[in-house]
Specification:
The protein has 198 residues and is α+β, with helices and mostly antiparallel strands. It is built from seven helices and four strands, in the order βαββααβαααα. The longest helix is centred in the middle third of the chain and has 24 residues.
């Protein structure tokens, strides 16, 4: 995948990802994963809707759609920023900074935890979207952390296959796969077998 930095724009869909700075892990306990997701909801839910995600020990993936210009303009902090991209990037920066400060305090470490610039790649077509959802959820199996995709607790996969309340755009994701059964069926196989290239 390309790691090209491009501006974030309203109503567009992006693959957002980043990894640990160096050889450190960014998540070392259940509490780390939960705390990061709570911070994510705090900083990101106001600027973007989330389709899916996966948190791994040393990196993470989110698939998001930026909110409309009208919704962003209504945010109280919007007037402070020259562009929408700067507002959006600042929210992600606040997420990473807030998490890093807490993580460093607990772990007794100093310095940056994440790579300096988080990566974002625009998702411009349906085939790539479907492939990306599959790729994100399949990360724990691909990395050898789990044999079965449903056994990894720190992704949105379980939220997709249940009917429990969620902030995720679950219905839209499942519509891309036709229905829940097809979603589950596709996720039983590695992404490279789905016939869509990155």
């Amino acid at each position: 995948m390309q790691n090209r930095i491009e501006p974030l724009e309203p109503e567009l869909t992006y693959h957002i990802f980043n990894r640990a700075n160096g050889n450190d892990n960014i998540f070392t306990s259940d509490e780390n994963y939960r705390f990061f997701l709570a911070k994510y909801r705090h900083y990101i839910n106001s600027i973007a809707d989330t389709f899916c995600y996966c948190l791994m020990p040393n990196h993470f993936h989110f698939l998001v759609r930026i909110k409309s210009a009208r919704e962003l303009n209504s945010l109280k902090d919007f007037p402070k920023f020259e562009t929408v991209d700067k507002l959006l990037s600042k929210q992600f920066s606040n997420l990473f900074s807030s998490y890093t400060q807490s993580f460093n305090k607990v772990m007794g470490r100093k310095g940056s935890l994440f790579m300096k610039s988080f990566k974002r790649k625009r998702v411009a077509n349906e085939k790539y979207f479907i492939k990306l959802v599959h790729y994100i959820h399949y990360n724990p199996v691909e990395s050898g952390l789990k044999e079965n995709i449903e056994d990894w607790k720190y992704s949105s996969y379980q939220a997709m296959i249940t009917s429990k309340p969620t902030d995720l755009l679950r219905d839209e994701v499942l519509d891309y796969f036709s229905d829940r059964q097809n979603f589950i069926y596709c996720h039983r196989h590695p992404p490279e077998l789905t016939g869509v290239d990155f």
